[in-house]
Known about the structure:
This protein is an alpha+beta fold. The protein has helices spanning 36-50, 59-73, 109-133, 149-159, 176-187, 209-212, 263-270; strands at residues 2-3, 8-10, 13-18, 21-25, 30-32, 83-87, 100-101, 104-108, 138-141, 165-168, 190-194, 198-206, 220-221, 227-237, 242-244, 247-258, 273-280, 300-308, 318-321, 327-339, 345-352, 355-360, 362-365. The strands form six sheets. The chain has a six-stranded antiparallel β-sheet with strand order 13-14-12-17-18-23, with no helix packed on it. Strands 16, 19, 20, 21 and 22 form a five-stranded antiparallel β-sheet that branches. The protein has a four-stranded mixed β-sheet with strand order 3-4-11-15, with no helix packed on it. A hairpin with a 5-residue loop joins strand 20 and strand 21. InterPro entries: ATPase_NBD.
Amino acid sequence: MDCGGSTIDTTVYRCVSTDPLSLKEVCPSECVQAGGIFVDRGIEDMLKRRLHGSLFNDPETIRDMVNSFEDGVKPQFDGTMDEYNFRFGAVNANEPSRGINKGKISVSAEDLKRAFDVVTSQITASCFESLVNWKAKYVILVGGFAESPYLRKALWKALENCDIQIVRISDHLKKAAAEGAIIGSIKQFVIARAAKATFGGCVRAQYNKKLHQERRHTVQVYPDGKERVDGAFHMWIRKGTILQGTFSHKLSYHLAWDASTPKGHIIGSLRSIGIEIFAWEGSDVPIWCKDEHGKVLKGMRPICTLNADLSALVGGLQRKEGPGAKGFYRIDYDVCVYFGGTQLRAKLQWREKGILHEGPVTIMPYVLY
């Protein structure tokens, strides 16, 4: 479990062998927005309520109090003392009715527990099912928030009846650089990972009455005579799929033009072809990735666009006969996408006169804020 400032990430590995060390990710990682910063925000909200109407109720003073909590109390808090002090100002800062004395404010353990419990309950709820269902034996805690005795105690209490041992990196390895090096080294031995989302492309799909009835009015007839709808989600990999090593997925696509289209126009349109890739975090497989107006639907996360120059495929241009003996040109090609490692890779494949050809694909990542 990586317990960071903003998120808690839980990844479950099965040890396939110890010599050599080989690990396999058995399910998608769980991620919850319940890092240490949310405890700080809970403390800040509590102080604002408590100091309402006080001379010390100003943003800078409250910020100093929260900083004092974060630096001094938070790393040590285990809930065993009745009261804790946050130092924030000079010795002449006093307001006994608010618990402020000589530049320190006293806060009860119960008030602190409430701020911690909101966060720790989310963390245990996030990780519990994965750890128990996959019969984990050990939980290795890393990250800054893992230093919290209160968090470790909450996890121990939640898992004590599940025969799961909680392990944290020992004191002499607490430095971030050392911790990061250890994590990086371990990840080199991971031979399989679970897809954390459902990935797919946004395509012009052949109309299917059962799937696309709601957009019947948007159907367009393609040059090959088939009815198609825009904005459909074409699934490549479903969430939870175990990806062994560098997993590849071959996607078959084609383009078509009316037979009256000048070849020069076809070549020009082939020079810049883009396939948008999206991720869907839900457990289902969506039908659409965009609405009727081309706007990305809520919950769809743009990943990147695969851009390719397909002008080399013009040699494979085929004239075919459509419905009513209406001629059209068609080009078939495959996009091979490679998942695994540190980045997505892809390449084109097509056949020309029976010979397999390959070409590059440029991956343009989206900048997400």
